[in-house]
Amino acid sequence: MAKKEEKKKPNVHESLEGFNIKINAFGEMETTIPVDKLNAFLNENVEDKKLTGGDEEE
Fold first, then answer.
1. Alpha-carbon dihedral of residues 42, 24, 33, 36, nearest 10 degrees?
2. Which DSSP helix (H) or strand (E) runs through 21?
3. Confidence (pTM)
4. If we measure between CA atoms, which residue out of 39, 41, 23 comes closest to residue 31?
5. What are the structural domain ranges in the chain?
6. pLDDT tens digits for range 4-40
7. d(Cα 42, Cα 44) in Å, to the nearest integer?
8. Residue 10: CA atoms inside 13 Å, Cβ hemisphere, count?
9. Which residues does 35 contact at the CB level (< 8 Å), separation at least 6?
């Protein structure tokens, strides 16, 4: 017998509540939040290692 998989909501930041993304048949992204708003959120909350020097592996 196959086990039923329960769909759990992932833990997300409250600013991104209700965010969903999928790729349609043409390979285009469809999101519930405008891409500009998503980019603004990422700019505020994620540190870019390339701009700050980050950890360099040699």
1. 50
2. strand 21-23
3. 0.58
4. 23
5. 18-46
6. 777 777 788 888 888 888 999 999 999 999 989 999 9
7. 5
8. 7
9. 29
pLDDT at 58: 47
Structure tokens at 8: 């759990």
In degrees, to the nearest 5, what angle opens at C-alpha 26 toward C-alphas 17 and 15? 10
pLDDT (0 to 100) of residue 54:
56
> What H or E segment, with its residue span, contains residue 15?
none
Residue 17: predicted pLDDT? 86
The β-bridge partners of 23 are: 29
**Whole-number Å distance between alpha carbons of 7 and 4:** 9
Measured distance CA(41)–CA(35) in Å, rounded: 10
Cα–Cα dist 34/31, whole Å:
7
